[in-house]
Amino acid sequence: MRRVCRLLAEHHRDQLAEAATLAFLFAISEALESYALTRTRQGLRALMDLVPDRATVRRDGRELDVDPAELQLGDLLVVKAGERVATDGTIRTGRSALDQSAITGESVPVERGPGEDVFAAAINGGGVLEVEVTARAGENSLARVVRIVEEAQDRKGAGQRLADRVARPLVPGVLIVALLVAVIGSLVSGDPGEWINRALVVLVAASPCAFAIAVPITVVSAIGAATRAGVLIKGGAALEALASVRTVALDKTGTLTRNQPTVIDTLTTGGTTADEVLAVAAALEGRSDHPLAAAILAATDRTAAADDVQNVAGSGLTGTIDDVAVRLGRPGFIDAGPLAGHVARLQEQGATVVLVERAGRTIGAVAVRDELRPEAAEAVALLRTVGVRQVAMLTGDNTATARALAAQAGIDDVRAELLPEDKLTAVHDLSTKAPVAMVGDGINDAPALASARVGIAMGAMGSDVAIETADVALMGSDLRALPDAIGHARRADRIMRQNLALSALILLALVPLAGLGILGLATVVAAHEIAELLVIANGVRAARRPRRTHTSTLPAPRAAHTVPALDPAA
Question: What is the residue extent of each domain of the chain?
């Protein structure tokens, strides 16, 4: 009797030791899983800590130190050098270089002045700014990004849905297999205890723990890392869609170009100077709301306005300067005369040319063009290095302008003079060959963005509509973030596939070995926990920020220039 009791005690001690070991392994796995998920979410939430604890606001002629949560629309913030902006606003006075890297991911400070928008958490690098509040603390761009990303992290991608689809029938399937093992084994061997124990081990072996966490840990890590780099990816589905892209369709205005027309050439005739031509043009455009007016006015310091300015619909402007008749307009409305060859050349290069006439004689011409972003050609080249096979330009602009700019950017597939519905058709056409990403401003290109495999809004920090409607939003204005984002998504997709493959391999190996009695409970649980640790460690690799594929320094924007005066007799 004593020997029997001693054997039972030793057996229970063995079970207690085994149970303690299993509990320890489970605790380690759960703790690491919790740590990995918490770290990625805290990394995103840490963005909110970039907002200063206090803000200086001017009210009733006095400067007050207040909590940013107390700021109201219309308040005037005083932001000194080195301070962070407490919330979104518009600069009223002052000019400075602002570091907006925390929001847009752009490492180079941007110059901002009166009338321009600034975002919460931007660092003022220069003089004192007075900023009118346009969003409360809980509604600013930074808070909006954090909220959208946290919501996006809960959306399931195709890979995550695949894991769920596998895990859902797996549970009843494993119960049936375990029951069969217990019943058939007991009937054949006559030892129910042994086979019931094996059935329980099979249940543990078939537990899809690693499978369940394989995709979510990667998605959460990848989305958090992308957001910190200025790329807003709205959920696992968007992440996987971005990874699948093989064709990129780019809108021209505001995406490939700055959407800021500038004077690129000034032509003159006879003894007229470039300054005189620009002065006459600016005098007429000063009374106009034409899209080219701002570019011409910015090209000259002369601010005198013409008198009796009349708009000739579809042709140009007429008026007088010191009682001398002047006109500005398109070729045909004004005779190009000796400038015809140069005007044709500039139009072939994608410029819009207006001729200037004084006292019935053509004195010159001004060429205006919305220039490419300085990084556009590099971004297009980088897209091909991350697996994009085709890059297309979709634009409503005229064919000559589109082809000229596309050639500079290195784009061969140009589709111009498109209405919004035509862009939709173009995206459908491209989609028949490969998954397409459409990149636009998120508003005018909405039909094309919605129909593409993934819609990407460019420079979306200033547009609520862009952030809310696009699958992916590039929060800065550097187009090179696009290939970075695609490369990051492809890497995350590879990690997800590795995790799913490892999880499936573990199940396929453990279940038959457990059913045959080769592996015991402790070994099965240890294998599961080790696999889960490997899946977590691999998934967390996606938390690295998108790797910059570019290192070159961008050239300074090309300044407007003039060509030598032309001889009227030429």
Answer: 51-139, 242-258+373-486, 262-369
Phi and psi at 260, nearest 5°, equal: -135, 85
Residue pair 440/479 in contact by the 8 Å Cβ criterion? no
Q: Of residues 88, 251, 265, 471, which has the active-site annotation?
A: 251
Contact yes or no for 458/474 (Cβ under 8 A): yes
* Yes or no: domain 242-258+373-486 corresponds to CATH 3.40.50.1000: yes
Catalytic residue list contains 251: yes
Cβ-based burial of 427 (10 A; exposed 0-12, middle 13-18, buried ≥19): buried
pLDDT tens, position by position, 269-326: 888 899 999 999 999 988 776 667 888 888 888 767 888 888 876 678 899 998 899 9
The Cα–Cα gap between 41 and 485 comes to 19
Beta strands in 136-182 (DSSP E): none
At the top level of CATH, the class of 51-139 is mainly beta
- As a whole number of angstroms, the distance between CA 266 and CA 353 comes to 9
Average pLDDT in the 147-159 region? 58
Nearest to 239 by CA among 494, 490, 543, 45: 490
The predicted-structure confidence for 73-121, as pLDDT tens digits, reads as follows: 999 999 988 888 988 899 999 888 787 766 665 545 777 888 888 888 8
Q: Report the sign of the C-alpha dihedral through residues 20, 26, 29, 30, in that order.
A: negative
| CATH number for the domain running over 262-369 | 3.40.1110.10
Structure tokens at 435: 């998954």
Q: What are phi and psi of 551, to 5 degrees?
A: -135, -10
Buried b (16+ CB within 10 A) or exposed e, 475-486: bbbbbbbbbbbb
465 or 540, greater pLDDT: 540
pTM (two decimals): 0.69
